[in-house]
Amino acid sequence: MELIGDYMTRHHKDCDVAFVRAEEKAAAADWTGLQREAGIFLVEIERHIAMEEELLFPAFEDRTGMSGGPTATMRMEHEQMRGMFAQMRAAAEARDAAQYLGASETLLILLQQHNIKEESMMYPMLDQALGEDAAQFLERLQSAAC
Fold it and tell me: Are 135 and 119 in contact (CB under 8 A)?
């Protein structure tokens, strides 16, 4: 049986692929490609964050009674990332490769650290806290992807 952690980790990797494609377009000054690829990345990463903040984290907090712990940290980091998303979006629209690549470099550092915490700590805790109900949550995540 697939776990929530497996699904969300796989989605991290999908977002990473889109992130790299957008960076390649920015480095090549391919503005149409950058708009497309950055758009795909930003939609996917924002969807990923929404799945966590709107479905998974509240369920975890309900089950464990922990609302100021790991989920609060993850939300704070998401908020930091949103600032980078806005800078990347603005840079893509302005056709400013240097600005885009600068913001994406900062985001990459944040994402790498954040994803390690989620994959090694948060997702296993989620799978454990949700127990037998994890399959139901996984179905909801998969249906949200369509």
Answer: no
- 0.70 exceeded by the pTM? yes
Total domain count, the chain: 1
Kindly tell me the sign of the dihedral angle through the C-alpha atoms of 114, 116, 119, 122: negative
Residue numbers of the domain that contains 37: 4-144
CATH number of the domain encompassing residue 63: 1.20.120.520
Name, in order, each residue with C-beta under 8 angstroms of 123's C-beta and a sequence gap of 6 or more. Answer: 3, 4, 5, 8, 9
Strand ranges (DSSP E) for 28-133?
A: none
Any long-range contacts for 98-107 (C-beta under 8 Å, 24+ apart)? 100/22, 100/23, 100/26, 100/34, 100/38, 101/23, 101/26, 101/27, 104/19, 104/22, 104/23, 104/26, 107/19, 107/81
Q: Is there a contact between 27 and 11 (Cβ–Cβ < 8 Å)?
A: no
pLDDT in tens, 67-124: 888 999 999 999 999 999 999 999 999 999 999 999 999 999 999 999 999 999 999 9
Provide the 10 A C-beta neighbour count for residue 40: 17
